[in-house]
């Protein structure tokens, strides 16, 4: 058997015809441990963020994760919402480049590169929303974890895992891949959504995230 983490991967393998179709199976990774996440989400985060509204990004500081794009987009968002912060968890080879960008855009004290964290669930739980800026993911485990924790998720429409998970923005908000204006506009849409529509997106994503539970 050849297992695929998402339906989009399954369809790509079908088209490639490397394997016979009867060998292909969709198998969701069991990354959601309900007891573990519900315990870890309650741990304290760094004191400087406890009373702040912040957008969250998580991942290695690499080209694929596209954090330069996220920081540039946040600059535009922050002009409209100056009290908002951006917190990025992760470490990687682009740290120096990102630090220089933060300084050039005069975002010091607004954008925080917090490095690797053993526990990310407490940050997800206290964030205003989660943004996956990656150029591609399959499926995008942090998106699933954020959905399980009832967060609104933004993700690039990359025709990979995030596109499938957010289901044409029914389960969150998709923006055009690597398009700053699209992400900024989607954030403005998010701010204007009714509480009912926000709740529906959260419920839809949480239901989908349960496919990835250990129990399931």
**Helical segment count:** 9
Q: Taking Cα atoms only, what radius of gyration do you get, to the nearest Å?
A: 17 Å
Mean of residue pLDDT?
A: 95
**How is the main sheet built?**
6 strands, parallel
Strand content: 5-15%
Spatial strand sequence of the major β-sheet:
5-4-3-6-7-8
Categorize the overall geometry. globular
| Gap from first CA to last CA | 20 Å
Summing up helix and strand content along with how strands pair, one would put the structural category as alpha/beta
Percent helix, as a range, is 40-55%
Order of helices and strands: EHEHEHEHEHEHEHEHH
Identify the notable features of this structure and list them briefly:
alpha/beta, 216 residues, single chain, two-stranded parallel ribbon, 6-stranded parallel beta sheet
Explain the overall architecture.
- The protein is of the alpha/beta class and 216 residues long.
- The two termini are 20 Å apart.
- The mean pLDDT is 95.
- It has nine helices and eight strands.
- The chain is globular, with a radius of gyration of 17 Å.
């Amino acid at each position: 058997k050849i297992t695929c983490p998402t339906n989009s991967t399954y369809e790509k393998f079908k088209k490639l015809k490397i394997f016979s179709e009867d060998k292909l199976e969709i198998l969701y990774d069991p990354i959601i441990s309900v007891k573990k996440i519900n315990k870890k989400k309650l741990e304290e985060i760094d004191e400087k963020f406890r009373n702040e509204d912040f957008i969250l990004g998580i991942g290695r500081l690499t080209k694929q994760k596209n954090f330069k794009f996220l920081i540039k987009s946040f600059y535009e968002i922050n002009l409209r919402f100056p009290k908002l912060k951006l917190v990025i968890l992760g470490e990687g080879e682009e740290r120096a480049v990102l630090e220089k960008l933060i300084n050039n855009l005069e975002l010091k004290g607004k954008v925080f590169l917090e490095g690797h964290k053993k526990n990310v669930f407490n940050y997800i739980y206290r964030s205003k929303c989660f943004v996956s800026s990656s150029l591609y993911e399959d499926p995008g485990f942090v998106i699933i974890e954020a959905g399980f924790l009832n967060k609104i998720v933004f993700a690039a429409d990359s025709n990979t895992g995030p596109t499938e998970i957010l289901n044409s923005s029914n389960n969150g908000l998709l923006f055009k891949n690597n398009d700053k204006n699209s992400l900024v506009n989607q954030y403005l849409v998010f701010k204007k959504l009714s509480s009912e529509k926000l709740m529906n997106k959260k419920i839809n994503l949480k239901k989908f995230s349960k496919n990835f539970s250990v129990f399931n």
